[in-house]
Design goal:
- It comes from Flavimaricola marinus.
- The chain has one domain: Pnp Oxidase, Chain A.
- The chain is built from 1 helix and 10 strands; from the N terminus they run ββββββαββββ.
- Strands 1, 2, 3, 6, 7, 8, 9 and 10 form an 8-stranded antiparallel β-sheet that branches.
- The two termini are 20 Å apart.
Length: 174
Amino acid sequence: MARVNAAGLRLDPYSTSKFRLKWDGKFVMGASKVSAPKKTVELIETRSGGDPSSPYKIPGQVKYEAITVERGITHDIAFEQWANKVWNIENGLGAEVSLADFRKDIQLEMYNEAGQLAMRWNFFNCWVSEFGLAEFDASANAVAIEMIKIEHEGFVRDYDVQPPTEPSFSVPVA
């Protein structure tokens, strides 16, 4: 059971193993790994002519690193379909990119041990920049993994998701 303080706030950190990814209003089936989302504010060092010899620092542009999603290969073609919206060699000249809908917003949800939604992050204007299949090896004993790299224009935590009331029960029931 997770430890809580007197105010009822959780003290134990959440596990990274309970998560779900959602786009187009549907959960992505079988996602087994999502790389860590990261945002970096670039640094601008500047100084004026009359200032002391040392420059001062101000924030510059914000950059968001792409996230990578992995899952076992099945007959679900959602990864490949989304990647093909950005570039599909089978489409004719002038129709290689699905400009109307290649971008989409996605959500990454984290759950507590009981399977209750604990946190959500929203990613904006996402699109697939890489799609990869498994490395095939006849002597390996491994699951075939497919991967997409998702570019995005920022992410924010959804503060409308409140910490869940963690369940407490006794077994057997008296």
